[in-house]
Amino acid sequence: MWLLLILLQDAVLPAQLCEAPGEAAAAVRALSARLLGLVADPARDPDPSVYLALRLAGDHDLRGEKRYLARLQDAFQHRYGRSVQAALRPHAAPHSHPQQDAVATEHTTRAEAEWPETGRLALYLLGLRATCPPLEPGPQRSLVTWLKYYLEEDWAGSRQHGQPLTSYYQYSLGVLALCVHRKRVREEVIRRLLAAEHHGRFGHAGGSAMDTEAVAALAFACLERERTVGARLAAELRAAVRRVRRRMVEAQGRDGFFGNVYSTPWAMQVFIATDACRMQPAYGRAMAALLENLDAFTTAATAAQALPVLHGRSYLDIASMRCREELDTLTPLSPELPPELPGNVTVRLVVECPEPWCPQHQLYDRPVPAPAGASLLDVLRAAAAQGPHNFMFDTQDTPQGPFLSRVLGLEARQQKRSYWQLLTAPSTSLQMGVADYRPHDGETLILRLSEW
Question: Does the predicted model carry a pTM greater than 0.90?
Answer without folding.
Answer: no
